[in-house]
Every structure is written in structure tokens, then in C-alpha cells.
## 1
Amino acid sequence: MHAYSLALKSLFEKNANPAQAEPMKKYMREQFEYLGIKTPERAALQNEFIKKNGLPPLDKLDSISRDLWGLPQREFQYTSISLLGKLENKLEAEFITTIEYLLITKSWWDTVDTIAGNTVGVHFKRFPKVREKYLKKWRKSENFWLRRTTLLFQLGYKTETDFDLLCEIIRENFGSDEFFINKAIGWALRQYAHTNPAPVKKFVKATKELHPLSRREALKNIGGS
């Protein structure tokens, strides 16, 4: 394990709160262990650590990310994602392989959605060839978390959203009974509706194949049927 990862591990373990760990674990359906460090405290610890140690060196970010991902407590994965967010505008194109690893390992909405809507979105803007290659791959994946990522990576794009592309990807997922896919479809449509509601209403009205959950989520803030 890299020295940076070890130092973070030590700091967090010293600040564990077992009384909070069990409720946090239950909230996440018993899927992950927790140290019991809530988000504000974790953010404060991380900021303290960065002031002292700086951000991870870019050439070591892959190994540090994987170190933190390999630890059992979920706070370490959250910290890994936060560190990525601080460096996402400096990543090399090839870092997509690390991003993919994080998406498909210990996958759940709490990590996938943050990576998809932030780091992946930024990376795909910066590297169109990476976007083309990995969208093509992930759209066809049997791993629904990768397909969810293709639905969510434009969440922050606003007027730059490729709505036609989003609709294509949505259509590719018609008939899915996976909650996280149908929820993501509705979320992506609802998010774009904040910027441009008319095409969202038109798409929902014309698309009878939309799952009821997707339809309900898409129209939540703009009405329609």
C-alpha cells in the first residue's frame, strides 16, 4: 500500500465512531462496513490531511485509488472519489481504465452516481475519443452500473447535453426490469428538463415504452402525462 493511502487509513481509523457505524451500514442495506465517520467529519479530516500532505501525485493516483477501494470501510471509497474530483481536470486519457475499475468494483449508487455525474462527465468532455470508445463499450455491457453511467454522465452538461444521444441510450434500455436503470432514465430526463423542458415532455409523451418509474421521475418537476 502506498504511503499516502496508509496515512489516510491511519487518520480515519483513529477517528472512527463505532456508535455511528452500524446505523450507516444499515442505511446502505448491510452491503458495506463503515468506520462511522459522517460526511462533514470525513470532509474535515480529508481537508486536514490534504493541508498537511497535499493531493496525491498524479502518477500515483491509480495505485492510491485502488488502495482506498480495497479497504473494507466505505468511507475510504468516498474519499477516493473526492480526491478524484479534485484532480479530474488533470487526469490523463488513459485513467479511464481506473475509472472503469471503480465503477464496477463494490458498485452501488452512492459511488457510481458520483463518479458518473462528475468524473466521467468531465473526462468524456476532455477526451472525445475516450468518450466514443467507452460509450460504445459500456452501452452494451451486461453490467448495469456501466449502463447507468452512460445514462448519467451528462447530468451536469445542461445546454451542452446531447439529448439525441441520451434518448438513444434510453431506448436501448427499454424493457429492463432493473430499478437502477429505470430510475436513472427518469433522473436523466428530469435533470435535462431543468434546462429544456419542452423536448423532455415531447419525448415522454411520444414514448409509450417508458417504464412507469422513468416516466414519473422525468415529469416530477414539469408536469405532463
## 2
Amino acid sequence: MLSPFFQEKGLEAGCDEAGRGCYAGPVFAAAVILPRDFHHPLLNDSKQVKPAQRNTLRDIIREKALAWAVASVSPAEIDQINILQASYKAMHLAIAQLNTQPDLLLIDGNRFKPYPTIPHHCIIKGDGKFASIAAASILAKTYRDDYMLQLHEQYPQYDWASNKGYGTAAHRKAITQFGLCDEHRKSFAINPVQTSLF
């Protein structure tokens, strides 16, 4: 059962990212402020929700949320600043796009780069504990998946329609066969010339 809020008063924005461990594509993040009485029986950590249900939830969240935003950081910038900092930046960009400023940020995970003017709490596995973080995980995941489906049209050899840029055996084999493309994160140990993964 997801908790509807962390504290008794004020607006809370749940924040989560998607694609942090991928070999390719941007990292996405979302920030969501839900009404304090929001409840939906399907809402959960995006990894625990079926794809069709995630898309249904996305529509409901966008309709019912008091505010929501999604942002991303490109593979090239991930290579420049590292994936941890890129994840923080994506969250900050999403928070900055909210049309209502929350009083508190609920961050999925155990670390975060503080956002100016808004206090935060880091919550390990928060996407399975708090509704607003779960909602953010749904938005980040569905927006990223849709983006990877678009990239698949340009780079079908990597089968991103199925693996979404994660390091599956088929994806690693494709890298060995075709090499890396512009959408791969070059700072990750994914080049078959540079790593013993292959």
C-alpha cells in the first residue's frame, strides 16, 4: 500500500529517474505533485506494472496531478558529467519545469544533489512506498520507453524496441557486430575493444 504523503501539510513532489543503467539513450526524470487524496489501485513502482497499465497510469497521472514535468539528459552529456550527475540534472530540470513549486521533494534512492530553495528527503525504494514517487517513476519510464522506440526506427540493429537500451545479450552482440552509435554512452564499459564483457 503506497503512502499518499510524507508529512501532514504542504505540497510534495515525488521525483524518480529511468534509464540510469542503460548502455544507450538519455536518462529521463520526472517530478509529480499529486492531490493529497489521490489513489489508484494500479499505481506502483513502474518496474512492477505491466506496460499497458503504465500507459494507462500515465494518462491518469497527467490528468489528475496538480503539477508534473518530465526532462532528460543526453548520452553526450552523460559522458561529460557522469551518469550520477546526469540523473541529478534530469531531476532538477523536471523540478524546474513544474508550474507549482512544492514545499518538499521526495527523491527515490539514497543520494541527491540538493535543489535550491526546496528541502528534500531521499527514500530508498521510494517508488514502492510513496504515491508521488511511484507516479514519477511511471512518467519517467513511459516517456523514456517511447523515446527509445523512436530511436529504434533510426537504429533497428540494436533492437531498442525490445531492450530499451539496456545491456541485454542481444544488445551486446549487436555492439560487437555493428559498433557504437551516437546514442551510446561512450563512458560506459560497453565497447568490445575496451572491455572483457564480450
## 3
Amino acid sequence: MQCKQVISLMVLTTWLMGFAGFPSFAQDLAEFEKKVTEFTLDNGLKFIVVERREAPVVSFMTYADVGSVDEKKGITGLAHLFEHLAFKGTTTVGATNHEAEKAAFEKMDQLFLEIKSERRKGERADKARLEELQMQFEEHQKEAEKYIVPHEFDEAIAKAGGVGLNADTAWDRTRYYYSLPSNKLELWMCLESDRFLNPVLREFYKERDVVAEERRLSENNPISRLVEDFFATAFKAHPYGEPVIGHMSDIQTITRQEAEAFFDQYYRASNLTIAIVGDVDPKQVREFAETYFGRLPKGEKPEPVETIEPEQQGERRCSIVAQSQPIVIIGYHRPGINHPDNAGFDAITDILGVGRTSRLYKSMVRDQKIAIAAEALSITGAMIKYPNLFIFLSVPAKGHTNEENEQALYAEIEKLKTELVTPEELEKAKTRTRADLIRQLDSNSGLAAQLAFYEAVTFDWRNLFHQLDQIDQVTAEDIRRVANTYFTNKNKTVGTIVTEEE
């Protein structure tokens, strides 16, 4: 396989597998519950605490039940932008004189609104006025920068021995996470609660430009463009059809006021779930939580997205022409993680598309040699709350085409619909599913991520364990039924990259 092909496949698989469903957990729930303490503060913030005393470290996961699906037309990209800004500090962290920088912010915001107003005139815009406004804007931006203490939030955590400081945004959630020595529990409580109690959207316009550059890079990547077009084609009503990073014109025109309003609406205590795993005393955790996170104002949990994607009535297709190897993606609409058929999709993922023993690999890569990679994955799990897609993808080998690979994928799907999977295949799928999740949960941070997700999306962290029961009950007949129900032509979207001729 050529290096370029390997890199491109890794990009595509990583992008899609970011949505892949988590498998099941083979541990006795009753025994595990003895190590779990859960409580909800008066303001609605839920805590899940797990004692793991093997090492003097603690992992923290703050799960905000907000993502790009909660944005409105014209202001896409806000959820991702706020994730960036959440590391810029608070009224007491990140600046020497917040009142002075706030005055500069207000002037910058007013000037930006004037710049937007003038730019809307298009060809009739006064260029001299725009230059003057821009010059004034930059002067106030420099004034605000005088008071900044760069990276103060990050450095406070690093000096305390923190590792893995990071955050990520997806369609349905935003997560903030890192680990600290166990004697730094109160420091975490102080810093983490402060950035949601007193956030300052510091360096707002500079960070917005950073996100715009991320967007520009994605537009120059054929695989990113294909994925974006693919989901926009598959979803005509639901906001899963919008890019998480946002549209370029929206990113460039978002205002600080819009970002603050978004924060006020979605970063309420009732919309946060926190999982803490490691060497901790649950009683002390609760005391600190009430002291620090109890300060967050109480508010009703925001309403979920009510838009339901209408039933698809026929095949949809999209294509990207680019200087890239050909790729074909086939997606079928499927129900969400809380649906009884979810376990069946997990089994299909393993049997058809995971590893060198999967049907797709053996048929298309090993035997027919028409693809350098062929996989199947279910878009549920870490990022997904609403019904999404089940994906088949392949990368044609040299001398072979998208059309040839597409037909080979259909042949394997048809076998799934007409023939029962073997008992050996089904048992291997269940065994691998069990083992995979155990490996993921071996770390404190992995367990914290899972618990927070299952609590927020399935409304009970115990469903992390119940997933095992559900997949153990999957039968060969269930798999055939699921395939016939969902893998239909009218429920299908196909996306391809067509190699541009030199």
C-alpha cells in the first residue's frame, strides 16, 4: 500500500470511528456499584465518583450536553469555538486587570459590529472607512492584550502535575478532561467550576481566526470535504447534516455577544455531567463539589433537538472530484443507541468490518484484491445521541474502481440479508466486543469518559453494563432482520471521491 493511501485511509477511518459505538463491558454490575458514589447538586449538576485506589491519581471528565446540533442557522461553529475559549481563563485567571481588558473588549465588539455593517454593503462599502475601523479595532485589541497572562489556566494545571489536558466537540457533546495527583482534588474543583461560573471569552477574535484556519484546512482536504458533503446529503432536516466546525462565513462573523448567549443557554449546571475516577474519598468529593460547583446558578435543562429526520424515499448520491485516490462510502439510516436494535448493529460491525478476519476484508482485500481497505462501522456512541448512520466504506486498489467496490459491498450486504451468520462468527463478535471494552475501561480516563457518556445519553451510567447483556442476547436471526429492515435502497446514501485526471 502506498504511503499516501495509508495516510488518507487513516484520516477517513479516524474521522468516522470518532463516532463509532462503544462495545459492552464484562464486569459484574453489583460488584462495580460498590465502588460508585453518585449524587446531584441542588442546581442539577450530576456527579459520578468511582474509587480506584491502585495509584495516587484521579481522572476528571466534564461532559457538557451541548454540541453543534444545538446551534442555529447563521451561527454554526459556536460550540466548537467555545471549547477553544474555555481555556482562556476567567475573571480571576488569565489577566492582571479584568476590568481594564473588559473595557477594551466592549470597544472591540462595537467596532466589529460597525465593520460587519459596512462589509454588508458589498461593492458599495467605503474602503477607507473599513481601513480606519480595522485600525481602531487592532489598537483596542493590543490594549486588551496588555492585561493577558498567557496560558495561566494550563500552566496552573501543569505545575500541579496535571496530564492529558484537553477538550473536544462533536455533534452532541463537548468534553473537558485531564488527570491530576489525588492530593490536587480541590484545585481541580476550584479551576473547573470557575471556568463555568466566571468565563471570560478572552482573545475572542484571535481564537475565531484560529478556528477559521482549521476550517480552511478541512476545505483543502478531499476526505474532509467528502465526509461533509456525505452527511449533508444524508440529512436534509436534522442538524447532523451541518459540519461540527461550522461554515466559514458563520465563523468569520460570529460575535462575542452570540457566544455569550450560547454559553448562558447551554452551559447550565443541569446540562453538565461530571465523572471522577481514581484515588478519591467520595465524601470529600461531595463536600468540595457543594462548595465549588454548588455556586453555579440553577436553571432548567435545555430542550433536546426536536427535529426528526424524515424517512428517506430513495437513494441519494454525492461525489467529490479531487487529486486523491478513489473512495466509496455507503450509509444507511439507523436508530439511536437507546433502540433495541443497537446491539444488532454492534454485532454486524464486528462480523463485517473489524479486522483481518472480517467478511469485508477477506472478500475484498484478501481474496478479490479489489480494495486496499474495506470496513463497516456504526455511527453511534461517544458523539451520538440521535438516530444516525451505519457506514460501509472501501478504498479501491490500483486498477480497480469505485463502482466495482460498491457492487462488492452490496454483495456482502445481500449475504447478510439472505444467509444467517455462523455461530462461530456470532460468538467471536460477542467475545471481541467484551474484550474491546474492557481494554478501553482499563484506564481511569477511559472509564470516566464512558460513565459520563452513558449517564448523559442513555440517562443511566449502568447501561454501560447492560450493553453486554443486550449483545449476548443477539441471535443470527436478529442480524438478518436488522439487515433487511435498514439496509434498503431507499434508505441509502452513497458518497465517492473520483480521482481527478492529471
